[in-house]
Amino acid sequence: MKKKAELASDVPSDKFMYQDKEETQRELDAAHQILNDLPSPLIKEEVNYRKCNTPSHARYRGDDEPDVSIKSKKTKVSIKG
């Protein structure tokens, strides 16, 4: 686009097909504005400071605990009213 703006003539040779220098400059300015409006990407290394819970999710589930089988006893609960 920069090259297009540089090479554009002051007066278009064909009013239906070509842009003049002023129009190519507006197009280039709009492209720059669009690039500036885009959010910057989040990079893992740059946002690590945001972590507050550092243990992994597996740790909270107990996946790193030794495998202990627990036999549950079925109990019958009765409520007298």
Automatic annotation (TrEMBL):
GO MF annotation terms: nucleotidyltransferase activity
UniProt keyword terms in alphabetical order: Nucleotidyltransferase, Transferase
Region (Disordered): 54-81
Compositionally biased spans, kind Basic residues: 71-81
Protein name: Sulfate adenylyltransferase
